[in-house]
Write a structure and sequence with these properties.
5 helices; seven-stranded mixed β-sheet; alpha+beta; globular; 170 residues
Length: 170
C-alpha cells in the first residue's frame, strides 16, 4: 500500500531534546500504561535528561528513531536497546500520533523497519513488552509478526498488572 502521508524517519540527536521531550510527554498523556514512567516523573526531567534521551539515536547497542511530518511536527518514535545478551534487542518507546495510526499512513511499519534493521545487527529476534490491557497494541504487533511467548513481567508502575512478552524472529 502506498502511503498518502509524507514523513521522514531518522535517528534522534542531542540537539533534538525539545522535540524528544514534547513527543515523550504526548506519548505518556495518550497512553499512560504504555510507558515505564509516569507523567509526573517525566515532567521533572531536566534538559540534561532529555538530551541524553536524544543521544539514544546514535548509542552503542541502541537506537532511537523519530518520524517527522512535512510540517516539521514529530508524529512518531520507536527505540531499541540490548539490556543483556540473553534478551537481545528489545523494542521500547513505541508511539504513533493518533492521526498517523493505521495501515494507511505506513508510519508504524516505517518506524518498525528502521528498528528491525538495527536489531538484525544485534541478534536474530526482537522482543517487546506490552501492557496486558493494551489490546490495540497487541493486535498491531501480531499483525507485524510478533508472537506472545507466554512470559510476563510485572508492570513497573503498578505491580498488580503485567506486561506480556512478544517476540519476532528477524
Amino acid at each position: 500500500m502506498v502511503s498518502t502521508y509524507a514523513f521522514l524517519i531518522r535517528p534522534t540527536t542531542d540537539a533534538d531534546w525539545r522535540e524528544v521531550r514534547d513527543l515523550r510527554l504526548e506519548m505518556i498523556r495518550d497512553t499512560p500504561t504504555a510507558f515505564a514512567v509516569s507523567l509526573e516523573e517525566a515532567l521533572r526531567y531536566d534538559e540534561a535528561e532529555w538530551r541524553m534521551r536524544g543521544r539514544r539515536g546514535a548509542s552503542a547497542h541502541g537506537i532511537a528513531v523519530a518520524a517527522i511530518a512535512e510540517s516539521g511536527r514529530w508524529v512518531g518514535t520507536m527505540a531499541g536497546f540490548v539490556p543483556d545478551q540473553d534478551t537481545g534487542p528489545l523494542l521500547v518507546g513505541v508511539y504513533v500520533a493518533p492521526d498517523f495510526r493505521g495501515s494507511k499512513s505506513g508510519l508504524t511499519d516505517a518506524l518498525l523497519a528502521a528498528v528491525e534493521d538495527w536489531a538484525r545487527t544485534e541478534g536474530d529476534q526482537l522482543t517487546l513488552h506490552v501492557h496486558e490491557e493494551n489490546s490495540r497494541a497487541q493486535k498491531a504487533y501480531e499483525r507485524r509478526g510478533f508472537m506472545a511467548t507466554g512470559h510476563t513481567v510485572p508492570y513497573n508502575l503498578d505491580s498488580s498488572k503485567n506486561e506480556l512478552e512478544m517476540v519476532k524472529k528477524l
